[in-house]
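Teaching note: in complex prediction, the entire set of molecules is handled at once rather than each chain in isolation. The prompt given to students was simply: 'Predict the structure of this complex.' The entities are:
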Amino acid sequence: MELVRATEAAAIRAVPWIGRGNKNAADGAAVDAMRKFLATVEFQGEVVIGEGEKDEAPMLFNGEIVGNGRGPLCDIAVDPIDGTSLTAAGRQNALSVIAVADRGTMYNPKEVFYMDKIVAGPAGKGIIDLDRPIADNIKDLANALGKDVEDMNIAILDRPRHEKLIADVRASGAGTELMLDGDVAGGINAALENGRIDMCVGIGGTPEGIITACAIKGLDGVMQGRLYPRNDEERQNAIDAGHDLNAVLTQDDLVRTDNTFFVCTGVTDGGLVRGVNRERNQITTDSVVLRARSGTFRRVTAVHRSDKWLNDED
Ligand code: VTB
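The expected output is the structure of the full assembly:
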């Protein structure tokens, strides 16, 4: 639960940068706040996935040790803002995210920035399969959900590389929910039962894939991913590092423990959590905390006193 203070802090510090067109400044403010708050949490965390290398953004770097140096040894995957461009533009769906698991359990394919992913809720167990055509995945999941294909909603990042995937989804009869950014939230929304999204598919960031896997474990959902090198050099680096580029990785390969925590706080409003709200002397944050071992989904609304946050020493 202490971890939520770190994502709250990152989200609050990003607020002055919402809609200011400067994504590195937003990210930088969130990174600093998260680093500072993580230093007070009782654990010995090592950052395995520090988002930012792909976009050359400010980041918590891989190998960085966080926490107060006492307590359990952990792997950390962190994205102080998933959706920095959304934040900079003043768009919805930006989140501050952290995922924690036992030390040595997070898959770390740092040589490859992208991963092909498919995510669904508990009904997708034994059904979703990255190797099958998308139309078959949709049809079988619809069946398991007791829905018509026409009522299925599939979240996909709106990118030119997904042109065919989007066309295939629509040709199957299902609808698409195109995301500007933020496929962590897309994956979680897909795994939540009774949500508007039934499945999240497509190529997104590898760090976001590991973070999503931690959340999926907490939601008892299903996920598969396969590394997606952008060019021959990345492909060769990955092979040299011992990665099997054909392997379909499940959530249990991506994070090899059930002792995972996932925490996110809304920066801007979104389908999963509301954005930071500032009113008079109060700042309100909306967060979700998922604990895989107990399968608990907690919503945490916190009210912070603005005067405490105006003081940088707080
Ligand atoms: C996604 C999205 C992220 O990276 O993973 C995406 O969820 C994939 O990369 O918010 P491209 O943007 O290069 O397509 C982010 O946009 C963050 O970089």
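Point out the following to students. The chain has a mean pLDDT of 93. The first strand starts at residue 44 and ends at 50.
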